[in-house]
Design brief:
The longest helix has 17 residues. 30% of the residues lie in helices and 10% in strands. The protein is α+β, with helices and mostly antiparallel strands and 89 residues long. It is elongated and about 55 Å long. It contains two helices and three strands; from the N terminus they run αββαβ.
Length: 89
């Protein structure tokens, strides 16, 4: 979806990241080949699935449930994001 947003912004003449930040959420292979390269979150999908199953099974075994796992999500910064951008009007 973020790659489509980049393309749409390019067609609209909006400069990324100078005027607007775009961030992806799944670190797909193509994010490195966009112009500019897409900033994206890398999610450990296998870990998230196994932790979800572990937590669900834990809920079946006890009345109190269990604590949530530590986050293993990383932000991979590329050129598509700028922390200090003026607002577009």
């Amino acid at each position: 979806m973020a790659i489509g947003v980049l393309k749409g912004l390019q067609l609209a003449g909006i400069e990324v990241p100078e005027e607007l930040s775009v961030t992806g959420f799944d670190n797909i292979l193509f994010s490195a080949y966009t112009n500019p390269p897409l900033t994206t979150f890398d999610q450990p999908k296998k870990y998230i699935g196994s932790e979800a199953a572990r937590l669900l099974l834990g809920l079946f075994k006890s009345d109190t449930g269990s604590n949530l796992p530590d986050s293993k999500i990383q932000i991979l910064k590329a050129d598509c994001w700028s922390a200090s951008q003026p607002r577009r009007r």
